[in-house]
Design brief:
By secondary structure, the chain is mainly alpha-helical. It has one domain. Helices cover 77% and strands 0% of the residues. The protein contains ten helices and no strands. Helix 1 crosses helix 3, helix 1 runs parallel beside helix 9 and helix 5 runs antiparallel to helix 10. It starts with a helix and ends with a helix.
């Protein structure tokens, strides 16, 4: 009971974080492991649990969704859907022991991406956009990663879409929808997996949706820079903890 109360509180905070700056999975992943799940089951359950919140976020910003100059939104949608499916299938085919070995590196990578995207990435909308094939390959690779693990996909897509020539404001709305598409395909696959812990999904889903609403309300009232710093510290701390556990 205590672990589920902790999960509810953490998932509520994750919903707020996702609405404000992203990085909510850095909270739900360890919280789900605290309830007794192994790393792969926690990752799968987190994807399913946070999906409803992603849908509502994507729906709210649908008016700003756009295409790339060289690639239509329909193409981006299809690429994201297929890549998400492949990533999910790859995750289910990965033995738990191997995934537990990989997950510290994945969390470290996602944290590094978040750090780069939050404080070091420079956006110059006058830069010549990448070509159609390169844009397609980049989005497909991100989609596979999104279906497999998902941490940091928001920053990765925001970078890819702006490099592709999309305005930053439209890229933010578009990446929210595409992230939902990736996870929709992954969730569809995970629904048939025994790794999904449905009691935890129920608790975390309700809490994350509620947190997302609070986050949307607080969007203009919270110091986002401080929030991003907290997420980065949490991510690196989680990476260290997972490395110690894997080699303990």
């Amino acid at each position: 009971m205590i672990s589920f109360i902790v999960l509810f509180i953490v998932a509520f905070c994750a919903g707020i974080q996702n609405a404000l700056a992203g990085g909510g999975s850095f909270l739900t992943f360890p919280a789900l492991m605290f309830t007794g799940l192994d790393a792969r089951a926690a990752n799968i359950t987190s994807t399913v649990a946070l999906f409803p919140g992603q849908v509502t976020t994507g729906f709210a910003g649908r008016k700003n969704v756009s295409s790339l100059p060289q690639l239509s939104f329909r193409a981006l949608f299809i690429i994201s859907l297929i890549g998400g499916i492949l990533g999910a299938l790859l995750l289910l085919a990965t033995p738990v022991s191997i995934f537990e070995f990989l997950v510290p590196w994945l969390v470290l990578f996602a944290t590094g991406v978040f750090l780069w995207g939050s404080f070091f990435r420079k956006v110059d909308e006058k830069t010549e956009p990448v070509g159609r094939v390169k844009a397609l390959i980049i989005q497909f690779a991100i989609a596979i990663y999104g279906g497999y693990f998902g941490g940091g996909i928001g920053i990765l897509m925001l970078a890819a879409l702006t490099i592709g020539g999309m305005a930053v404001r439209k890229a933010g709305a578009t990446k929210n929808v595409l992230a939902g598409v990736m996870n929709a395909s992954a969730v569809l696959i995970f629904l048939f997996s025994s790794d999904v812990a449905w009691p935890q999904v129920g608790v975390a889903s309700i809490a994350s949706i509620a947190g997302g609403q609070v986050g949307a309300y607080a969007l203009q009232r919270v110091n986002e820079k401080k929030l991003r710093v907290c997420i980065i510290i949490l991510g690196f701390g989680l990476s260290i903890g997972l490395f110690l556990k894997a080699h303990g």
